[in-house]
Amino acid sequence: MEQTQSKTIAPRDPDVVMQLSRLGSFHQSRLSFMRILLRRLEAEAWTFDRPVFDIDARGVGRAVYSAHGPERSYSLVAFANDLPPEKRSDRVIATEWDATFTLFDGIPTTADLDRLQNNVPKQEAGRVSERELSLSRANRSVRLWDYVVEKLAAGEQPDQTTVEKVGYLMRTTAVYGSGKFGAADREDTADRPEFQAPFQIEMLSVFLTRAFVMDLVEHMAQSRAPDTAVPLDPNLRRRFGMGNSTGLGMAPFLLTHPALLNSWIAAREEALARIRGLPDAHPSEVDIFRSFALRARLHAQDWYSEHPVQIAKLDALRADTAALLAHLDSVDLTADYPWNRLWLWAESALSVEGQELLASLLLEPYPHLVDGLSSCMGADETTTWRIDGAMSTDRLRTLTESIYRWALDTDWTSPEAQARVWYTSEEKLEPRLGDRFDEPVEPYEQPLCPGRDAARMYVDLCAASNTTVAGFLMHHPEHRHIVRRVQITARLPYAEIRDNTIADTVMPIDMLRLKLSFFGACHFDPRSDRWVRINMYQHAPFPHELGSRSGDDWAYPFLTGGAA
Amino acid sequence: MSWSLNEIESLARKAARGAGLSWGLAEEAGKATRWLTAAGLPGPEALADLLTRNDGADYDMLCPVEAREAHWSAKGGTLCPLVAGAALCDRAEALAAGDNMTLGQTASPMLLLPYLAAAAQLAGRGLRVSWGELTVTLAGDMHLQPANANALHAPLADSVRIECTGTRLPDAPSPAKGRGQMPPDVQQRLNAFAQRTYAPATEASRLAGAGAGLTDND
């Protein structure tokens, strides 16, 4: 135990944090990329307009939503489609969508729009240019879309419970960034302050997409019944987020961007450690915390899933929020390192879902300790990427033993330990997960199983007579990728998922949730072990409301239905 | 039509893997092709030519062997710049300390340049590379200004000399930006190599592999 003279709390051990079951229980926080974006848009007083909205009564046409910052403007270019139901699929292999989008760097001319109209609706089969920063598409939630159009056309507001059961009118099924299909590379814009934090392009695109979707549904109701239609009540309108359906495509990113992953986790762990290290808390900070705990309970209540694993996690989470609120009533949280005491209580009293919710909640009362860390969440992979060939093989052995202890202790000859194979299908180059012993996919295996690869490398390393990494790799080029990972993780402790990504028990949705929680997503609703639906920006202000409503205080439902 | 550097790197990585390089070497081949493209050089062409030349070759035939002190050659007669380049980069400290190197016959020597640029950056010292009539100094910027462009594109060099200039380099430059060109035939050749890394689409894979099956129409 640490003594009271030094209450510097160290960030949590990566062996604890980087387990899939824990990463798959992460929640959004002050450090989520959506919240970082909206704080900036609000602080810099960005303005928004809609220079084009040319959509017919069938819902077909195009629209432009522009965002104007201190130095530059960006425009969401949207193409709306009248999609026959049989063509509607969330899968990457789909070829048509209800709506398609690109985020344009600046304000597009009519010629730009015409060029984009020939390409953006085709998505992967089209081609964009360095003027475009992202490419995405969305499908309607048919069950809610038709209902809302009908209600508004009849001059009525939709029922709030029906709205919240789904939570969005359209869900995106892929948001491509950085250089994909000809778009601008991330490196081209990374030095702009507004894109310094990760995924700000994608988050801006989704923020504007949500505004477009809500305008479109009102437009459709208006077109159907010009005499009776009404717009959505603004308070109800904000209860619509933007849905997203995500498959395995997101998982490899976490393994191919180790330095970036480290930056995300390290920022959150540093924030948690800072708050646990506070010797006392002002009563107003305790009140803020309590209020967010209440709102988090509301969020857990509104969170629907049909997946058995998530249902069990939600039951535990609801019990956790009740236990947390009861505990708050029984302890003094103003003195004697209150948040650390609360954290230590939670480690034995709450499920992993509840513990990770608490980790996010503890950041809420302390913007001055937390928000600045958002500037540490980007990463330049190139600075840690090159192999240090002068490192001794002894040192490499010691590092492997310390980082991959779990993998060296795993029996990789057991079929359960390497039951799965990550591979890329020739169909739209979709990443997939196959069965090593039942499907002929092993020859196509992608290097997304660092634990097994580290264990294999370690065997050869122990048998090698070379004294340097350079000499070892000359004879063992097959270990080059994993030696790189060992050396990166030696410098960046949260760079590696310290768990088995090819076990028979692996739940790829854990990897998806890790990434999506940093985006700021909520209401994780797994549709299988490798496919999840989420909600983004639910309760957030719309672009035209920024300035009159908080750009940051929206990530949990409001207790009274109004702004805090 | 231009390509983003990420597209070129990604295609090059997959093509190198498809041609038989290990994942780690293929990752570096992707970065090397990107670097050459950003420097205004025909990286994708050089890679496509090299992969075609070495398709099916055994690593042991391509791998450098220290024939005598500071002199590498390949057992198969011709060094692969993707293998030798990575090995040279692994010896960045020694190169910077003045351990000059000579390579025997080497295919597409232009592909060595990105690895040596990385080595120079890692060790903080400029490197000078020469083959035939050509000398290129790698000193932390992308302005190579070769006097003899034909030699730069040589499919083969009899020998390559690598020396430390002693010049101290500034800290890491900002990442290279720009767009790339790739003639259609080059893209097709790289795609054919990359295609080998993709599993054929089957109905079982389509359903189970992505974990779908529930309705999307809701």
Automatic annotation (TrEMBL), chain A:
<protein>
    <submittedName>
        <fullName>Uncharacterized protein</fullName>
    </submittedName>
</protein>
TrEMBL record, chain B:
<protein>
    <submittedName>
        <fullName>DUF3726 domain-containing protein</fullName>
    </submittedName>
</protein>
<dbReference type="Pfam" id="PF12525">
    <property type="entry name" value="DUF3726"/>
</dbReference>
<dbReference type="InterPro" id="IPR022201">
    <property type="entry name" value="DUF3726"/>
</dbReference>
